[in-house]
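call fold target=Ribosome-binding factor A
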Amino acid sequence: MSRQPHISGRAPSQRQLRVGELIRRRLAEVLARGEVHDPELNAMSITVGEVRCSPDLRVATAFVLPLGGERRDEALELLRRNRSELRRIVSRGLNLKFAPELRFAIDETFDRMDATRRLLESEEVRRDLRGGETNEDD
């Protein structure tokens, strides 16, 4: 599921997608197990929705969301504060030439899905989907 157009304007390669998924799984595992030496970060439940890699695989952007969607800014700050340790731990479990720099952003997929659902449930859209029918007597 693509979130936004890629910087180069092209879709990510199979290699980028594969490495991104490996990093996503490993990062999610590290966060779930509380392997970081930060009790505040370990106390938060954070979902890793997607990891998108740069074409050279040196930068990986993880799209994350804390459980319930609350305390987003705090979660980002904790992840950024521990990015070096996370990079070291995550790369240990992967067989890559370089340990990618980890960047973090809030995953807004669920917010967009809710907005789309609300839009599709609106009466105006329902009327348009029915073909513009009205309840007027002709």
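return ok
Residues 14-129 form a domain with the GMP Synthetase; Chain A, domain 3 fold (CATH 3.30.300.20). Residues 51 and 62 are 4 Å apart (CA to CA).
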